[in-house]
Write a structure and sequence with these properties.
It comes from Aromia moschata. The chain is mainly α. The protein has nine helices and three strands, in the order ααααααααβββα.
């Protein structure tokens, strides 16, 4: 599938212009040659448009592999699995497109050796569905995914309302705190420049196994931050309960 840009305006005449030509010829009695010359349309092209009301034929020799309805099914499936936190990769989508075409007997030009659709098909599919893009996902545990539901959220806000009512907390005194783990050693080393043909390229790090540091940040709804806390102990939860 070519990415070559369009360089001509061939067969780009709007339907309103053709309808105007039809009225001038049928109702006005003008000749086809004079109307075509006045509007800058080739006479042969005008005659083809006037001969039939069928839509214009396609340009080029390539057809779309799937119909719009089929691609809409792909689109809805991608959104559905993404909302379930099981988004499919670009490679998996290309495999699904090939399998879908094979099982439904749809003529295609996909690679039968790799058994997947080409990168050009994927690029064109994403272009036709501009609200889709290839993103880097965030790792999410299944416990967190299951726990984030409406009953759990309602229970959280009920408990929060009871605490605020019991202790008379003002809204700005309620802080949202979260913790994250930071390693002293890079998980993924940056690329370096080395000689070609070298089998092993190494880079010195601070330690073979780094130390995990627990960082804690908290803020309230009025955008007031508490200075971050950092802990290197092996039991950060007990440290947080005693010091934060």
């Amino acid at each position: 599938m070519s990415r070559r840009g369009r360089k001509t305006d061939r067969r780009t005449y709007p339907s309103s212009l053709i309808e105007e030509d039809r009225k001038r010829i049928v109702d006005g009695g003008e000749s086809k040659r004079s109307v075509a010359s006045a509007l800058g349309i080739p006479e042969s092209t005008l005659r083809k448009y006037l001969k039939t009301d069928a839509p214009a034929t396609k340009l080029g020799r390539y057809d779309s592999t799937f119909t719009k309805e089929m691609e809409d099914e792909f689109y809805e499936y991608i959104k559905k699995v993404d909302n379930m936190y099981y988004g499919i990769t670009a490679r998996r989508l290309r495999v699904l497109a090939y399998e879908f075409a094979e099982k439904n007997g749809i003529p295609h030009r996909f690679n039968k050796d790799t058994r997947m659709a080409g990168k050009e098909w994927l690029r064109a599919f994403l272009k036709r569905h501009s609200d889709l893009s290839i993103r880097q996902p965030t790792s999410t545990s299944i416990v967190r995914a299951i726990g984030f539901n409406k009953p759990q959220c309602d229970r959280f806000f009920e408990n929060l309302a009871n605490l605020m009512k019991t202790h008379n907390f003002p809204p700005h005194a309620v802080y949202n705190m979260d913790e994250t783990g930071i390693s002293t050693v890079l998980n993924k080393l940056p690329r370096v420049i080395s000689t070609k043909g070298k089998r092993c390229v190494n880079k010195i790090s601070s330690a073979e196994r780094g130390t995990n540091i627990t960082a804690v940040c908290a803020m309230n709804a009025s955008a007031h931050f508490i200075p971050p806390e950092a802990d290197t102990s092996s039991h950060p939860h007990s440290y947080l309960q005693e010091n934060v």
